UniProtKB/TrEMBL annotation:
Protein name: Heme oxygenase
Keywords carried by this UniProt record: Heme, Iron, Membrane, Metal-binding, Transmembrane, Transmembrane helix
SUPFAM superfamilies recorded: Heme oxygenase-like
Lineage, opening ranks: Eukaryota, Fungi, Dikarya, Basidiomycota, Agaricomycotina
Coiled coil: none
InterPro entries linked: Haem_Oase, Haem_Oase-like, Haem_Oase-like_multi-hlx
GO biological process: heme oxidation
Region (Disordered): 247-278
Feature: compositional bias, Basic and acidic residues: 247-276
Top-rank taxon: Eukaryota
Residues annotated as transmembrane: 280-304
Length: 332
């Protein structure tokens, strides 16, 4: 049985956060979703879905920070002009989907994300952020700022190049500095409106760490400890988001199925078959309902993730095919 870590609370808060989150940081970086993202291996639709989840996270964090902008432990690092990411995420999503920015929430990818509800990992994350914003002491929001903003600043330029290459965003416009589709990874300089270089991003990180240390000086040891522990929780919540990312293999069956449906539809149009009687015997309808219910049960219980999930998907496809074939035969 492992014991809780012991912290030297006399140290600056930035140091405590760095030392106290090493393991959680490593776990998050080595998760499967992070590896796919950093490797530029996500299908474009899945990457957009990931950005949509991040938008919800940043929108909730930033509304909480705006609400408590003058709180003693949050004021030293409050700078939405420099740090806010929700607006850039929204712009990137709209660009990648090729829709006006005020319309991306009506896109099928977003509708699928929120129907019937947001992914559980995202809901858990947002609920935690909202609870902190509603608490008498919102200081732990600083931990979420630390995890998200310093992470973006540390790897922003590298990830930007990976994403631009993966999704064909290396256009002449982007080379000129417009950063279409990758503005989430771009920060402005600390004291100007120019895009920050790697050196300038280091200055922003130093400024942020100094602000955290000031915040640490303004709170009791118990509050400092709460912030450090919340930072580890923030990493775990982010891992939950990474774990909702679907691998290319997991998205292939659905793509294959759609293409086969399209092919069958095209073939039926080409052959110009005469229309058939659309009536179905009651027993046939019952068989179809049973097939759908079985497929739904398997999806709810275990999902179609991983190798085992793919095998379940093949089983359901085969079972449904056989059922529909029998149903069609009975109908004729």
């Amino acid at each position: 049985m492992s014991s809780a870590p012991v912290y030297d609370l006399s140290q600056p808060l930035a140091t405590l956060l760095r030392e106290g989150t090493k393991q959680a940081h490593t776990d998050a970086e080595t998760s499967q979703g992070a590896r796919l993202l950093l490797g530029g291996q996500l299908p474009k639709d899945e990457y957009v879905r990931f950005l949509m989840m991040l938008w919800y996270v940043y929108d909730t964090i930033e509304r909480g920070l705006d609400r408590h902008s003058t709180y003693p432990t949050l004021e030293p690092t409050y700078n939405p002009t420099l740090l806010a990411r929700a607006s850039t995420l929204s712009a990137d999503i709209a660009y990648l989907l090729e829709v006006p920015e005020d319309q991306w929430k009506a896109h099928p990818i977003h509708k699928e994300l929120v129907t019937p509800r947001l992914p559980q990992a995202l809901e858990t994350y947002l609920s935690r952020l909202q609870a902190l914003a509603d608490s008498p002491d919102p200081s732990p929001l600083l931990a979420h700022s630390y995890v998200r903003y310093l992470g973006d600043l540390s790897g922003g330029q590298s990830i930007k190049r990976i994403i631009a290459k993966a999704y064909g965003l290396e256009s002449e416009d982007n080379k000129a500095g417009s950063d279409l589709g990758v503005s989430f990874y771009v920060f402005k300089e600390l004291r100007s409106a120019n895009n920050a270089s790697i050196g300038e991003m280091k200055k922003i990180k130093d400024w942020f760490r100094e602000g955290m240390n000031v915040a640490g000086e303004r709170c009791e040891d118990e509050a400092k400890l709460t912030i450090v522990e919340e930072a580890s929780n923030a990493f775990r919540l982010n891992m939950g988001i990474f774990n909702t990312i679907r691998t290319p293999e997991e998205t292939k069956p659905a793509t294959k199925e759609r293409s086969q449906v399209s092919k069958r539809k095209d073939e039926s149009v080409t052959e110009q078959e005469p229309p058939r009687d659309a009536s179905w015997p009651l027993s046939s309808v019952a068989a179809v309902i049973a097939a759908v219910c079985l497929g739904h049960f398997i999806l709810v219980v275990g999902g179609f993730t991983g190798d085992k999930g793919y095998q379940k998907l093949l089983f359901v496809e085969r079972w449904l095919s056989e059922t529909f074939l029998k149903t069609a035969t009975d109908a004729n």
